Amino acid sequence: MRCLLTLLAVLFLTPISVFAQSASDLFQQAVVMERTQGDLLGAIALYERVVDASNDRTLTADALVRIGQNYERLGRDGALDAYQRVVSDFGDLAEPVGIARARLAALVTLAAPAPDPPNSIAFKVPGRASPWGHLSADGQRLVTIERSNTMADGGALLIMDLVQNSFTTLVPGRPGGFAQSPRFSPDQNQVAYGWWDGEGRAYIEVLDLPTGSIRTVLDLHSHFSDLPGVDWTEGPFDPYVLDWTEDGSGLLVYNWVDGIGGDWYSNLMMVPVDGSPPRVVARDKA
Asked: Among 140-144, 200-204, 258-262, which is the least confidently predicted range?
């Protein structure tokens, strides 16, 4: 009887310990193949053997996470299935489940197609539309100007949602003046635009979209008071923001001012958005 019990112990217990050790060894071999040899497909095959062979839940969940990570690196399907299995079958294991959930959220976001903006949209806005506008990098927003029917009403800065077919007023109109030539910043989080107040003063302003805060980065009147023969009761006119620098630190700005006797001056300048003095790139008298 004792011999029979011993034989049963050998038959049933020994394979389990060898089985577990084998799965652990396979996992370590897969790690070496992945990290040292760079053979991601070979590592995936070994991790899959671990999943099939292991009785250790933590080891199995870790192997599934690594399968998902390697499929991501290869740019192949399979990562979602691996991560979903970790979440559904190993919910009691905080670390691998946390990794799997984070990667699932990222993959679902990346996989979601951006809605296509319609080919043409009719917007109903107060006043009259302005020809000035700038399209966002994703093609889903347009920042533009609502020109009022009378100068006394001012002209507002608007942003149009080309997907939802709606618009929002970013900067309300100000009596006697209007915004013009708005431009999105490279990171799409700011809008620079010119502002003429209708009383001979013009400004370059920057609106921070997340917070709604506005800062003046240039008062053109104060920087062109040295020009001889300028009729400051009428100008400077038309502060145009032409573009941002690639790093978002400055603006290329153009404006012109009336001169006494019919002359006028045009100015092209680089304007830092931190409020530092502008640098005149070119100045011309016509």
From this structure: 258-262
